[in-house]
Amino acid sequence: MTLHAIRDCIHAKKVWDLCVPKRWRKHFFLTQDVKEWVRKNITIKGRLEDFEWRQWFPIICHNIWLAHNDRVFQGSLPSHQDTLVQSRACLAWSSLVLHVSNTVAMPCWEPPDEGKVKFNVDGSLDVTQNLRGCSGLARNHESMVLCGFLYRMPSGSILSTEIWSILWALKVAWDRGFRNLEIEGDCVVAVNVVIEGVGEEHPDLCVVQEAQMMLKQDWRVNLLV
Questions:
Q1: 108 pLDDT tier (thresholds 50, 70, 90)
Q2: pTM listed for this prediction
Q3: Which of 19, 51, 64, 78 has the most other CB atoms within 10 Å of its CB?
């Protein structure tokens, strides 16, 4: 792995320009030794959004490297915005798993069959800070991360966040061209609501109806819990 591929090429530099704080940029791009550059970034103290920089850094490097391989071997290259969004989703998902794994026994993740994509989704609500949102991560049968999303919601219940997570997974998967999809969450109620529908007075009626319209597209989608 070279600094050119993960820091200095056009795609990588655009990704870093989006997320490296301005006060760090001069020194961030000056170091020419890979080991020294990595050491500095995993020991530096600072935060980006809700996470420490040392958490962001290796995940962004990983996704830039995957994008580089896509360009070299498949002739395709995601946008720098997509690479950052995917990194943010990976970080949110891994942090959720690490937090939960300290309190409960986590089931093993089961990959989808070959030719399918599995989107693991989750909604969350922090009543103490009045924060809510949803996230998702798509992987193939080889456990390779394909894309992800992280969406912060201005309002809504915990059920709303779970329903939104399903809708966002459907939207992202369709736009990415995935046509054989599994969406796996942990909320049976949200899955049933999307499948069966809700009454006209339900606060999430529009979201549910949009998700149901997405399910009617020309593709295969299984909702799992």
A1: low
A2: 0.60
A3: 64
